[in-house]
Automatic annotation (TrEMBL):
Keyword DNA repair: yes
GO function terms (MF aspect): ATP binding; ATP hydrolysis activity; ATP-dependent DNA damage sensor activity; mismatched DNA binding
Primary role: This protein is involved in the repair of mismatches in DNA. It is required for dam-dependent methyl-directed DNA mismatch repair. May act as a 'molecular matchmaker', a protein that promotes the formation of a stable complex between two or more DNA-binding proteins in an ATP-dependent manner without itself being part of a final effector complex.
GO biological process, one term: mismatch repair
Gene behind the chain: mutL
Family: Belongs to the DNA mismatch repair MutL/HexB family.
Entry keyword set: DNA damage, DNA repair
DNA mismatch repair protein S5 domain residues: 201-319
Identification of the protein by name: DNA mismatch repair protein MutL
GO cellular component: mismatch repair complex
């Protein structure tokens, strides 16, 4: 089982940022209002995620580390209407198979909490422990038993930028959740969690950038889109300022990113890219998130129609501003 988990880990856990993503998504699925992410050495030494969510019942803690043990979907039908961020039940067993994990949790109403320690996929201990509010998971020595993986990691600075990037996007797609990200004790992000997406944007990209963002929205029979786009003068040299969300799930999609750029027509300088936060709402039946284990790629029905809606919506909004 450990070998199967390590193989799955190859797909789910590429680098420290992938661990951060999975753990934060679990905290979000547990309805946390406050999520703290602490890393040491960009997560290579340690990653700790603390949440104030629902927690895990004592009897379910070991199960949570078994493959395809998800508490989130119960039928085949659900697979096409996924509302939670996780649903494949692969993350915890994958992570635990290639690192040293200590998880402390307590479920509301329980009399004691649970602390489980798993190393390289093997349970070291599983004991009742002090009651706590929510879940704290600490992942140390990532890839200690898969040296090939370890070898392919980039510099600490690059790994840290990946961690930052994923936390930024998760925070942006959940502005009602208060996030803190720290590396080696230094705070890299702190959001208010008051539901104001522009404030979250400001916490990430700075007040000056936030002041150059304008709201827009667009809608047709199948899709509802809203968000913020930057004045054409506020640009950067890559596409990383463009964030796409479908039903609250952060996604990557080349064509939709292109649609955002098309909305600027000829207003952008060559080689420059705008900032944009695009929230897309659609019937989950129009969207297949079960394409890849990391769930960042999705397949959207009627995608050309959505691209058109986004491009035209942005174009119309920028035209109003007489820019
Ligand atoms: P998935 O998220 O796909 O269900 P995971 O392997 O990420 O699978 O997690 C397995 C299970 O462990 C989840 O379904 C959930 O029941 C539980 N779990 C994991 N992390 C948390 C958390 N932070 N708070 C509450 N429950 C959690
Ligand atoms: Mg998960």
């Amino acid at each position: 089982a450990v070998l199967a988990d390590q193989i799955a880990a190859g797909e789910v856990v590429e680098r420290p940022a992938s661990v951060v993503k999975e753990l934060v998504e679990n905290a979000l699925d547990a309805k946390a209002a406050q999520i703290t992410i602490e890393t040491k050495e960009a997560g290579l030494e340690m990653i700790r995620v603390t949440d104030d969510g629902e927690g895990i019942e004592a009897d379910d803690v070991e199960t949570a580390f078994k493959r395809h043990a998800t508490s989130k979907i119960t039928s085949r039908e659900d697979l096409f209407r996924v509302a939670t961020l996780g649903f494949r039940g692969e993350a915890l067993p994958s992570i635990a198979s290639v690192s040293d994990v200590v998880l402390m949790t307590a479920h509301a109403g329980d009399e004691t909490g649970t602390t489980i320690h798993i190393k390289g996929g093997k349970i070291v201990s599983n004991d009742a422990s002090q009651l706590r509010n929510g879940t704290q998971i600490t992942v140390s020595d990532l890839f200690f038993n898969t040296p090939a993986r370890l070898k392919y990691l980039s510099s600490l600075a690059t790994e840290l930028s990946h961690v930052s990037d994923i936390v930024n996007r998760l925070a942006l797609s959940h502005s009602d959740v208060a996030f803190v990200l720290k590396n080696n004790g230094k705070t890299l992000l702190k959001t208010a969690g008051n539901g104001n997406q522009k404030q979250t944007f400001s916490a990430i990209y700075g007040v000056k950038s936030a002041a150059k963002m304008i709201y827009f929205n667009a809608k047709d029979l199948d899709f509802e889109v809203d968000g913020m786009v930057s004045y054409p003068e506020l640009t950067r040299s890559n596409r990383n300022g463009i964030s796409l969300m479908i039903n609250g799930r952060y996604i990557r999609n080349f064509k939709l990113t292109k649609a955002v750029l098309n909305g600027y027509g000829s207003k952008l300088m060559v080689g420059r890219f705008p900032y944009a936060v695009i929230n897309i709402r659609l019937d989950p039946l129009l969207c297949d998130v079960n394409v890849h284990p990391t769930k960042q790629e999705v397949r959207i029905s009627k995608e050309p129609q959505l691209e058109k809606l986004i491009s035209e919506g942005i174009f119309a909004r920028l035209s109003q501003e007489n820019l």
